[in-house]
Design a protein that fits this description.
Layout: H1 3-13, H2 18-26, H3 31-62, H4 67-100, H5 105-132, E1 136-139, E2 144-147
Antiparallel strand pairs: 1-2
């Protein structure tokens, strides 16, 4: 994969509707390079999820609630995370099987595109929890979290 192709995939990873754009941009390459491009996008989406999880954990640490409530919230988030990964695995396996019975490059590309899309959506949902919940003020540019006054 050329550095230009990888750079294009990374730029697309940060754009809205990135998975569809990445699949379209990567399609210009032969199937093996297309898969490599999508795998790079998938790694970026995993990093976005990890960063959102870290930001959420930092917000919980700042919050002045009692330990019982914080633990309940953390357990609830943990269950939601487990459910997300199970859903993503099932949904993307299904989408990968649709185009070509799941046994050729088109099936793998569809599965990777699905995983990218759902990962990016999940990272946005985690960050939305910070934006939507009144005690937290999240500065996306500086990636810092403060309690609102």
């Amino acid at each position: 994969m050329t550095s230009q192709t990888l750079l294009l995939c990374v730029v697309l990873a940060l754009s809205p509707g990135g998975a569809l754009w990445a699949q379209t941009a990567c399609t210009a390459d032969p199937a093996d390079r297309e898969q490599a491009c999508l795998k790079a996008r998938l790694e970026e989406s995993y990093r976005a999820i990890r960063q959102a999880q870290e930001d959420l954990a930092a917000a919980f640490a700042l919050w002045g609630q009692d330990a019982v409530f914080k633990n309940m919230l953390k357990k609830s988030l943990s269950r939601a995370e487990e459910d997300f990964w199970r859903y993503r695995a099932s949904q993307c396996a299904f989408e990968g099987a649709l185009p070509a019975q799941g046994y050729d490059a088109r099936g793998k590309i569809a599965q990777l595109s699905c995983e990218i899309s759902l990962n990016e959506q999940h990272a946005r949902q985690l960050l939305h929890a910070l934006d939507a919940y009144p005690p937290f003020k999240f500065d996306r540019i500086n990636r810092s979290i403060e309690l609102r006054e």
